[in-house]
Write a structure and sequence with these properties.
There is one protein chain. By secondary structure, this protein is an alpha+beta fold. Helix content is about 25%, strand content about 35%. The protein is built from three helices and eight strands, in the order H-E-E-H-E-E-E-E-E-E-H. It is elongated, with a radius of gyration of 25 Å.
Length: about 200
């Protein structure tokens, strides 16, 4: 019995160590919208926006204040981003701040074809780009904007934003860790008692 109690304590401590390493929650928005560049200009010729739901369901402001949210990334899957197309992804926070994240990865070649609408896509035409997000930008309503820029270059055809995934790394609440360790200990004790042979009368 004493050995089991010791093993349960060790398991609970190990579980606590894993939890301190953090967990990740993710939320994916299906966008499936086309951006096209139909004229030569030095300003964005096409933009689309979508509101990103926050997959972290707890109080975000409180979690930020306590340092429970430790990191975030935004991953965008796009189709048919040609090599000569200049793109820009912008994150708008709830306070009106505008944060330029960078450009989408391109497919490395140009074929002047329109992307397939919806989930369908052409082979080798899909790219995945991941951007770092400052956790301080997560509180409130979050808007993502994709832009295709002319910059004096005529690049007809455009591309499609397919999906947008927000990943938030956070530290689980201590209570959840303790409950997990307690459940592990009780379950192991119950299983051990079932396996012990009956003592002779």
């Amino acid at each position: 019995m004493q050995r089991f109690v010791l093993a349960a304590v060790v398991a609970a401590v190990a579980l606590t160590g894993v939890a301190q390493g953090g967990a990740v929650v993710s939320g994916t928005q299906e966008v499936y919208r086309l951006l096209d560049n139909l004229q030569e200009t030095d300003s964005p010729t096409s933009t689309i926006q979508w509101t990103h739901e926050n997959p972290y369901t707890n109080d975000v402001a409180n979690a930020l204040a306590r340092g429970h949210i430790v990191g975030a990334t935004l991953t965008i899957v796009a189709e048919d981003v040609d090599a000569e197309e200049s793109t820009r992804i912008v994150w708008y926070d709830a306070q009106g701040g505008r944060h330029v994240l960078g450009s989408l990865l391109c497919q490395g070649f140009s074929d002047r074809k329109l992307p397939k609408p919806g989930p369908a896509f052409r082979s080798k035409h899909r790219t995945t780009t991941t951007f770092e997000i400052d956790p301080a930008w997560l509180a409130g309503r979050n808007v993502v904007q994709a832009e295709i820029l002319g910059i004096g270059l005529y690049a007809p055809g455009g591309f499609e934003i397919e999906t947008s995934t927000l990943n938030i790394a956070h530290v689980p609440a201590p209570g959840a860790v303790l409950l997990g360790g307690l459940g592990l200990a009780v379950g192991g004790l119950w299983q051990r008692r079932r396996m012990e042979p009956d003592e002779p009368a």
